[in-house]
Amino acid sequence: MQRVGRRLLLCVVLAMLGETGLCAQNESSAKALAGAPSAPPSAAVTPEEQQLLKATEAFVRDLYAWGPDYKLTLGPLTQSAAADFYKVSLQVSFSGQSDKGEVYVSKDGKTVLRGDLFSLQADPYEQVREHLNIAGNPTTGPENAPITLVEFADFECPHCREFSQNFEAIRQKFPQVRLVYKDFPLIDIHPWAETAAIAGRCAYMQSPAAFWKMHDAIFKNQDNINPDDAYDEFNSFAKSQGLDADGFKSCLSSPEAAKAVEANRADGVTIGISSTPTIYVNGRPVVGGDPGTVEQYIQYELSRQGKQ
Asked: In CATH terms, is domain 127-304 a member of 3.40.50.300?
């Protein structure tokens, strides 16, 4: 699986917190967080809550050996799924790199939990599904499919190419499955991934079916594409697929295509994606796109719906 290398230190630490959600955020966000204050806004924070945040900060700093060079912002305190625990958001910055995580703190100030906290009375993947926003994205498979796979991928990612190859076998085994493709270019480590994502979107804007031809062409030629010739390569692919060459070339620099790619990436950041490919099977995440796990989740979802 492809990870964001330039923030590796913070990603590893935040993975220990059970949260690697924003390891792929853009540079402007990182710089903004780097300048964030070390304490949450004081408005509406009671003295008791302020003391709890201060104690939590001291504990977390000691737990992860975050010295004074690490800028840490905690809060606000929000109610978690467990009545006796607050959820505490964290923002940590070090050496120009920034990211987010969260911990859970008991209201009596005696316990800190890291990782995920779920309610037994709620669907654990409901909020994820609400932020997948699949409308307006390339899709293949029946529209009324009982199982929808949402793939967040990067055209420069070798493991995304591998999942694309594996999906053909999955589709043959489960023809009732639909796949929705969403862009998540890892711009920190893949220099032509965003251009490729825009190229895919431009193909889609001309013809939804053409997207998948562009998708396959990019992955097939992935090893031969480099930042210097990527633009020409994508225009060549478009021409070979019978697309309007002038319209495609114009689209590559259009704000519309770029905004669509950025919207997909923002969705991924919101639901906590930090690596590609990440596949959601009716909302269940499969980080890395392991085909065995994807098939397991498909079978489980089909059995739940009585459609095995």
From this structure: no
